[in-house]
Design goal:
131 residues; mainly alpha; 4 helices
Length: 131
């Protein structure tokens, strides 16, 4: 149980940094450059995804024995794309549909997708030994 809690804490730290990257890019593109919220949100998500993969597989999740790094990355990306679709749908629904400010919508989406990310990465990517 202690290892799981330590892993969740590491996941949280990596997630906070990835979220800062995600929000920063989204705000720069949406508010700074006036781009559409979906384009800005997706761009931030993709850039933070690259950071998140590198940090997660180095500090949070143990490499699964017998799985190539290429396969690991593909699974990570597929799970993340599903997360992106969920993230975009939630942001769009809350921002355009319900009129919530973009950052409030993004916070709600991030919280929900964070749970999805941890559970699916733990199931599909985690090796026998937690970090």
């Amino acid at each position: 149980m202690q290892k799981l809690l330590a892993q969740i804490m590491k996941f949280g730290v990596v997630g906070v940094i990835a979220t800062v990257i995600d929000f920063g890019i989204m705000n720069l593109l949406h508010y700074g450059l006036g781009l559409n919220i979906l384009i800005a949100n997706t761009s931030g998500f993709i850039i933070s995804l690259i950071f998140n993969y590198l940090a997660s597989m180095k500090y949070v999740f143990a490499h699964k024995e017998g799985m190539s790094r290429r396969r690991e990355f593909i699974i990570f990306v597929v799970l993340s794309v599903i997360g992106l679709v969920l993230n975009d749908a939630i942001v769009l629904t809350l921002n355009a549909g319900l009129g919530l400010e973009a950052n409030i919508a993004k916070i709600c989406a991030t919280a929900l997708v964070m749970v999805y990310n941890f559970v699916t990465r733990k199931i599909f990517l985690e090796g026998d030994e937690t970090k």
